[in-house]
Amino acid sequence: MTGPDRGRDEAADLAAELGEQRWEAPRVRPLDRRLAVDSDSVERGLASLVLTVIELLRQLMERQALRRVDLGDLTEEEVERVGATLMALEEQMTQLREYFGLSPEDLNLDLGPLGPLLPTD
Q1: How many whole angstroms separate alpha carbon 52 and alpha carbon 75?
Q2: What separation in angstroms does the CA of 66 have from each of 8, 45, 47?
Q3: How would you write the pLDDT of the chain (121 residues) with one tens digit per residue?
Q4: Which letter does DSSP use for residue 24 in this model?
Q5: Closest by alpha carbon to 96, among 86, 104, 87, 84?
Q6: SS3 sequence of 51-107
Q7: Residue 109: which of 56, 44, 59, 63 has the closest Cα?
Q8: Which own/partner contact pairs does 12-18 have at CB distance under 8 Å and 24+ positions apart?
């Protein structure tokens, strides 16, 4: 015998050898029963993902601003404005992390062999 029925016969034969009365195919349950999903965990996961992207961009902007300051590309007024903006953004990120119950470590994705997404300096 070939095809899908052959696999069922082999499973039934194996079940008989193991002393089982009969073999039954496993039941497939709907996805919502297999995954424990609640609105709080979905909201927290989405917030974590969005805040991770924002934190990555914030750090990139901060590094770019520091490079421009080191090169002397910015006036004193621009340096003050960029510094105030970056401090306000960092404060807002802290408030959002606290609101969603996230720590800075929660936003640093592990990229496996590449290491963490965000620098830990």
Answers
A1: 31
A2: 67, 32, 28
A3: 555 555 557 777 777 777 776 666 666 555 555 555 677 778 888 888 899 899 889 889 999 999 999 999 889 999 999 999 999 999 999 999 999 888 888 888 777 887 777 776 6
A4: -
A5: 104
A6: HHHHHHHHHHHHHHHHHHHHHCCCCHHHHHHHHHHHHHHHHHHHHHHHHHCCCHHHH
A7: 56
A8: none
